[in-house]
């Protein structure tokens, strides 16, 4: 069993991994600056939380050494595509430069046998794919600073692994969604940018949901995305960690379901499950938005024996709605009290 540093463990995906890590017998330590994470998402799991920034290399050094870290799950990052275009320097600083510092401290901490690294990457590294579904060998041509900052770290992992003999797994998410409300985990973004919680909020407060483009070459004209339940993402991280601990070589995996759902399909699902209308406001496409993004996750199935169990759309939306019902019980989280009948 491993002592695992979970950077960004107070964030959306990171917090969902804490419970499964403990259940698998590992010992997680969360490192998060809480700029976009919440200590309330860590507290239910009873794991140590170190509040600090990746740029604080002295603190990183102490945490690695004092906790005798064997592996790192690296979630800490800025993740708003639009914001990345407005603040590219900030995204490269946090997502690339500060992450490089983390890797350098990990190598310095244990040069002969550095901690294994599982890196939380994104399908944004692929940009607008020429062919669907997207495989690991599909061209990586990101179209925004967020995707480029993630791809830069992918390259660094590949190069540094050869130089310093540590192993890593890169996991590229498609559209993370859903919640594990029974364990106090769910989305708490401010501002919220993800479709499903925005559609749920539109059903609650009647403020129209903005739809960016209804003239795509898709069956209903709206963009199609591959939604993956965050609990399935969590299980993939445990599988990747166990793969590395067992001696697996460095590699990468795309994580999705292989099924796409359009924006309007999601809207209709929210309406059906909430029994409320979701008002919409149609607008133009966003620059660079591809008509469809669908994942080929066959490599993860083959090498990690990973199969999504929670990622049908109804389950994703139902879990997200259940999380919205209980958010008002957690002080300081999200948009405030909400009530769904």
Descriptive account of the structure:
With 341 residues, the protein is an alpha/beta fold. It has 2 domains: 3-174 and 227-255, NAD(P)-binding Rossmann-like Domain (Rossmann fold, 3-Layer(aba) Sandwich), CATH 3.40.50.720; 181-226 and 258-294 and 310-329, UDP-galactose 4-epimerase, domain 1, CATH 3.90.25. 39% of the residues lie in helices and 16% in strands. It contains 11 helices and 14 strands. The strands form 4 sheets. A 7-stranded parallel beta sheet has the order 3-2-1-4-5-6-11, with helices on both faces. Strands 12-9-14 form a 3-stranded mixed beta sheet. Strands 7-10 form a two-stranded parallel ribbon. Helix 1 links the parallel strand 1 and strand 2. Helix 3 runs parallel beside helix 5 and helix 9 (263-274) crosses helix 11. The longest helix is centred in the first third of the chain and has 22 residues, at 88-109. The protein is globular and about 55 Å long. The chain starts with a strand and ends in a 15-residue tail after the last helix. Mean pLDDT is 93; it is low at 335-341.
CATH architecture of the largest domain: 3-Layer(aba) Sandwich
Helix content: 25-40%
Structural class: alpha/beta
Write the element-wise H/E pattern from the N-terminal end onward: EHEHEHEHHEHEEHEEEHEEHEEHH
Low-pLDDT runs: 335-341
Mean pLDDT figure: 93
The CATH topology of the largest domain comes to Rossmann fold
Give me the number of helical elements. Answer: 11
Number of strands: 14
Number of domains in the coordinates?
2
So, the CATH homologous superfamily of the largest domain? NAD(P)-binding Rossmann-like Domain
How far the N terminus sits from the C terminus, by CA atoms, comes to 43 Å
What is the level 1 CATH name of the largest domain?
A: Alpha Beta
Shape: globular
* Main sheet overview: 7 strands, parallel
Strand content: 15-25%
- Rg over alpha carbons: 19 Å
Side by side, the strands of the main sheet go: 3-2-1-4-5-6-11
């Amino acid at each position: 069993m491993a002592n695992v540093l979970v950077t960004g463990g107070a964030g959306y995906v990171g917090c969902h991994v804490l419970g499964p890590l403990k259940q698998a017998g590992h010992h997680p330590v969360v490192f998060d600056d809480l700029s976009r994470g919440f200590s309330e998402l860590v507290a239910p799991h009873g794991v140590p939380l170190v509040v600090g920034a990746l740029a604080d290399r002295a603190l990183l050094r102490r945490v690695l050494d004092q906790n005798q870290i064997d592996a790192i799950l690296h979630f800490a990052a800025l993740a708003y595509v639009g914001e990345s275009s407005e603040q590219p320097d900030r995204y490269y600083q946090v997502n690339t430069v500060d992450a490089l510092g983390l890797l350098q401290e990990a190598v310095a901490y244990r040069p002969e046998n550095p901690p294994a690294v599982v890196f939380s990457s994104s399908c944004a590294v692929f940009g607008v794919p020429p062919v669907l579904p997207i495989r690991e060998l599909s061209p990586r041509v990101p179209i925004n600073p967020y995707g480029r900052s993630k791809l830069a770290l992918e390259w660094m992992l590949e190069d540094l692994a050869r130089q310093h003999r540590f192993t890593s797994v890169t996991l590229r998410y498609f559209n993370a969604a859903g919640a594990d409300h029974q364990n106090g985990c769910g989305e708490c973004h401010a501002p919220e940018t993800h479709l499903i919680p925005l559609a749920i909020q539109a059903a609650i407060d009647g403020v129209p949901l903005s739809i960016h483009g209804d003239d795509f070459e898709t069956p209903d004209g709206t963009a199609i995305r591959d939604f993956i339940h965050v609990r399935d993402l969590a299980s993939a991280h445990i599988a990747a960690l166990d793969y590395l601990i067992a001696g697996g070589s460095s590699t990468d995996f795309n994580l999705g379901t292989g099924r796409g759902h359009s924006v309007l399909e999601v809207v209709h699902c929210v309406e059906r499950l909430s029994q409320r209308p979701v008002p919409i406001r149609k607008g133009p496409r966003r620059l660079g938005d591809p008509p469809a993004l669908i994942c080929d996750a066959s490599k993860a199935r083959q090498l990690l024996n990973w199969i999504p169990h929670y990622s049908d759309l109804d389950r994703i939306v139902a879990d997200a709605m259940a999380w919205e019902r209980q958010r008002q019980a957690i002080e300081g989280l999200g948009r405030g009290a909400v009530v769904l009948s």
